[in-house]
Write a structure and sequence with these properties.
By secondary structure, the protein is mostly helical. The chain contains 3 helices and no strands.
């Protein structure tokens, strides 16, 4: 996030005084690009189980 904001300032997309009000946009874009933190289906295969374990199975074992 920080490097994206810094790059935007260097490229002239935003001015340093615009960082606080626009920071939420950069944070949102960062998390959208991280699919491992998106919601998972309980029935979807997980990990390196070769498709045999679901998220429900993993939670039930703990």
């Amino acid at each position: 996030m920080i490097s994206s904001i810094f790059l935007a300032v260097l490229e002239g997309e935003i001015r340093p005084d615009q960082i606080p009000p626009k920071a939420k946009n950069y944070i949102t874009a960062y998390w959208r690009g991280r699919p491992e933190f998106h919601a998972l289906s309980f029935d979807a295969p997980v990990g390196g189980s070769g498709g045999t374990l679901t998220l429900h199975d993993v939670i039930a074992q703990q």
